[in-house]
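Dear U.,

Please find below the material for section 3 of the report. The protein was modelled together with zinc ion; I have listed the sequence and SMILES used, followed by the predicted complex structure.
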Amino acid sequence: MRIAMFRRAAATTTAAATLLLMSMSCSGAATTTVPPTVRPTTSPVSGGTTQAAPAHTTPASATEPAHRRPPAGPVDRNGPVRHTGPAGLPLVGRTVGIDPGHNGGNFNDPSYINQLIWNGREMEHCNTTGTETDGGYTEAQFNFNVATDLAAELAAQGARVVMTRHTNTGVGPCVNTRAAIIDRSGASVAIDIHADGGPPGGRGIAILEPVADGPNDHVIAASKRFGQDVLTQFEAVTGMPSSTYDGIGGIVFRDDLAGLNLTTVPEVLIESANMRNSTDAAMLTDPAFQRLEAQALDRAILQFLTAAP
Ligand SMILES: [Zn+2]
C-alpha cells in the first residue's frame, strides 16, 4: 500500500492550539492532535429505527449556494432520498449510493475518528481528516461538493440517491457505518468520492477497486466494469489524466479499505486527482471542474446501469 505522508503545523483559533496534521493518501489512516470539541450524536430518524447519525443531521448552512445544498425532501432510515421521477427517465427505480469521503468536522474530534473499527480484514481508524491542497482547500469539502452535484444529476434522471453524509460540518460516520448505509440501501451501484494527497510531482485520477474477501465476492466483476466506466468517462469529460504515480493505467486494487471490503453492491473509490499537485489542485478547486466531475460520474453510472450485465 502506497502511503504518502505530509506533516505541517498550523495555528488554530484556540489558545493551546497547535494543530499537527499528518495527512496522507486520503484513503489511508491519518492522525490528528486537536482539541475535541464536536461529538457525533445518535439520533432517531424516521423509519422506526435508530442509527448513528454522525452530526450529518445538522442542516446545511443557509449561506451555501443552492446547488451545494444536500437533497431536500423525504427522509428514510438512510437519510434524505430522491424518489423516482416521471416514468421514462433512465434511472427510475434504481438506487445509487454516494459516499463523500471524510467530513469537515473530523479535524475537531480525534477521539472519535481515531477509534478502531473492523474493516472486513483488519482493524482501522473509524475515519480520517482527509488531505487538502497546499492552499488549505480540504478534501472533505471537495468530496462533498462533487457528491452534492452528482446527487442532483442522478435525481434528475429519476434515481433514488442515498448519501452517507449530508453536510460538511459533521464528524464521521465511521467507514464501516458508511458501508452499512450503502449495503442496506438496496443500491445497484455506489461510488466513494475522494481526492488524493500524493507526491507533488504526481497527477491524475486513480480508481480503487475491491479485492474478493467473502462478503464482496459477488460484486468484484461488476465493480471492475464500473471502474472502467468511471475511468473512461472521467478522462473524457474532465480532461484529468489517469494517475502517473498510483496503480497501473489508473486502476488500483485495494484490500485495506472498509468501503470496498464490506460492500455488497458494485462499488469503486475514486481518487479524483492529487490535491498536492499544483496543476491538479487548480482544477479541483474550481466549481466548474467539480460539476464536470459530477457529470462524468453520472454518465459512468448511467452507462453501468443501462449496460447488459
Ligand atoms: Zn480521502
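For the text of the report, you could mention the following: The mean pLDDT is 80.

Regards,
Y.
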